[in-house]
Task: inverse folding
């Protein structure tokens, strides 16, 4: 009887001890999983956060232009809206899609440690997109007759066509800026893109205020502000790339960029149609 009395308390004590150990292990596993999720989320947002901000800043330029045009009158607001949403919107989607072909090519080259090819691919994209911009110029040059055919009022069609003419420099800025953006994104240099986008956004706000309220240039001045801001964005990314931002991937201009243009064009066109 004495042995049973001694053994029963020990037996009762083992069960809670095992349960406590299992609970502690589960808590440790949960804490480990939570810590891993937080670490991965931090790494992800370090990349995605600046990319989201740069995209918002880019679209905000178009929105801010419409806001300033709204202070000029209903006709001016309608003209800017048509130019932005119809003409520039078509152009923006197609060129952005064509430049997105760089994401695959630059990602593969970077992973294979063929760093110099990133700069070559970007130059090929510049060539292809600039040629595409030349073929798309009639959209801007003949915007007024096209809008007439679509049934727009005469005054709105004429003013929208005039605004579209002033946005031609913006049209070519897309061809220069989009490949730069994809080139830097493939190297995870999204923070640089975000800072340059912030600079361009501030430039756009200041120039819009200057042209509309100080110089009183009207709706054409409002449209011209997009040229300043988008070219400031493109030049800022270019300066960062050329002057020390990408020492491994930018080796200067190369004649190699003119080879394989047909294959690059087919890939860019497929990517552009898919995204557009």
Result:
């Amino acid at each position: 009887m004495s042995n049973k009395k001694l053994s029963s308390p020990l037996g009762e004590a083992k069960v809670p001890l095992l349960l406590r150990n299992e609970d502690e292990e589960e808590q440790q596993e949960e804490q480990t999983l939570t810590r891993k999720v937080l670490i991965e989320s931090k790494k992800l947002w370090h990349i995605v956060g600046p990319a989201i901000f740069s995209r918002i800043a880019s679209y905000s330029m178009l929105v801010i232009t419409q806001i300033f045009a709204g202070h000029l009158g209903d006709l001016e607001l309608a003209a800017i809206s048509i130019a932005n949403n119809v003409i520039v919107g078509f152009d923006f989607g197609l060129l952005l899609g064509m430049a997105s072909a760089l994401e695959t090519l630059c990602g593969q080259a970077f992973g294979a440690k063929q760093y110099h090819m990133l700069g070559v691919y970007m130059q090929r994209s510049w060539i292809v997109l600039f040629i595409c911009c030349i073929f798309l110029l009639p959209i801007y040059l003949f915007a007024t007759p096209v809008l007439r055919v679509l049934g727009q009022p005469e005054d709105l069609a004429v003013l929208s066509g005039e605004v579209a003419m002033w946005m031609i420099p913006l049209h070519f800025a897309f061809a220069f800026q989009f490949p730069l953006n994809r080139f830097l994104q493939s190297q995870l240099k999204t923070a640089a893109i975000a800072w340059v986008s912030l600079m361009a956004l501030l430039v756009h706000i200041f120039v819009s205020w200057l042209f509309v309220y100080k110089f009183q240039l009207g709706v054409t001045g409002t449209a011209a502000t997009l040229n300043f801001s988008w070219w400031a964005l493109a030049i800022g990314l270019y300066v960062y790339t050329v002057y020390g931002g990408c020492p491994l991937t930018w080796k200067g201009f190369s004649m190699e960029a003119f080879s394989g243009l047909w294959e690059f064009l087919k890939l860019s066109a497929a990517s552009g149609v898919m995204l557009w």
In short: Confidence is low (pLDDT under 50) at residues 1-14. Residues 50-275 form one domain. Residues 97 and 272 are 4 Å apart (CA to CA).
